[in-house]
Structure formats: C-alpha cells, structure tokens
Amino acid sequence: MADIIRIDQNARRSRAVAAGGLVFLAGQVADDKAGDIAQQTRETLAKVDDMLARAGTDKSRLVSVQIWLRSMEDFEAMNRVYDAWVVRGQTPARACGKVELADPAYRIEVIAVALA
Q: For residue range 76-91, what is the model confidence (pLDDT) as tens digits?
C-alpha cells in the first residue's frame, strides 16, 4: 500500500496531500484580503509555490490548475500575473471560473495538482 503524506493538516483539511506520485493542493488564497486582484494573485501563487516545495516538487511539474475568481472582471489582470508565473512550455491543464468564495474579500482561490 502506498504512503499518503499530509502537509499542514488539521481536523478539517490538509493544505496538501501527496499520494500515488501526485501532490494535491487545497485551495490557496491570499493573506491580505484588502489587496487588488494582481496582489492577491501574486500572493496566492507564492503560496502554491511554497506548498509545492514543502511537498518536494515545483510549478514545472503542475498537471492541473483550477482558478476561482470572485468576478470575471478580474480575469485579464489575474492572467497577466499568472502568465508571468507559469513555466513556459510546461503549462498545466487549467480551468477558470467565477464562484462565490467563502469570504467575499477574497478575489481568487487556486487549487492545483502536480507530479511529486
């Protein structure tokens, strides 16, 4: 039986789970909820980088990214930050949509899956 590694776990969730050669990230959000979409996107993607590193991998090994936006009006500004962050030639499958986030101050939440 393969090991399951849970990172930053509490009673409700793990921020990342490594299993079966994959790393699954829970939704990552910015700490500064007052920031604009560019700031929140930068901070959220930095948290993705941090969680991937803690799991022993990096963004070059991403296979899937889901981006949830509070408003599609933020789509272009978010994409400018995302496009500068993602590894060219190794872009993951991606979906992006408008959702009602748990806290309306959040403008973006990112969920990702990477190879370990």
A: 999 999 999 999 999 9
0.90 cut: is pTM over it?
yes
What is the dihedral sign for C-alpha 96, 101, 107, 108?
negative
Contacts of 24 (CB under 8 A, 6+ apart): 16, 17, 18, 112, 113
Task: Report the C-alpha gap between 47 and 32 in whole angstroms.
Answer: 12
To the nearest 10 degrees (0 to 180), the angle between helices 75-85 and 37-54 is 40
Half-sphere exposure of 33 (CA within 13 A, CB side): 7
Burial of 107 per CB tally in 10 Å (0-12, 13-18, 19+):
buried
Helix (H, G, I), strand (E, B) or coil at 80: helix
